Amino acid sequence: xxxxxxxxxxxxxxxxxxxxxxxxxxxxxxxxxxYRRRVNAILWILRTGAPWRDLPExxxxxxxxxxxxxxxTASGLWKRIAEDLLASLDQAxxxxxxxxxxxxxxxxxxxxxxxxxxxxxxxxxxx
Length: 127
Description:
By secondary structure, this protein is mostly helical. It has one domain (10-98). It is built from 4 helices and no strands. The chain has helices at 10-16, 35-48, 62-75, 77-91. Helix 2 (35-48) packs across helix 3 (62-75). The mean pLDDT is 82.
């Protein structure tokens, strides 16, 4: 299997694969039988910022990837995966709890940028 730029390595997939086990009570697995391909499709979209319809054909139908992404998001699957990975890193002592932060960037915009009225200046009408 060729690992492309935006795809999970074998080790990365092994860490999250158990989250995608088929349900015993039902549910239809992907046609190609590969949740990994579906996850790689979603990661490709998230990492490139491309529209869903621009998903390369090697990942299968874009609508299938979008449907899986939506369902997994609504079910909390992505949150559980993130919590599981963070717990693994914490147990391995790889998280510095003093310096750890997801993003400390602050970008401030003037309140007029959010549509607030300015004195003496009429608001532009939206069409």
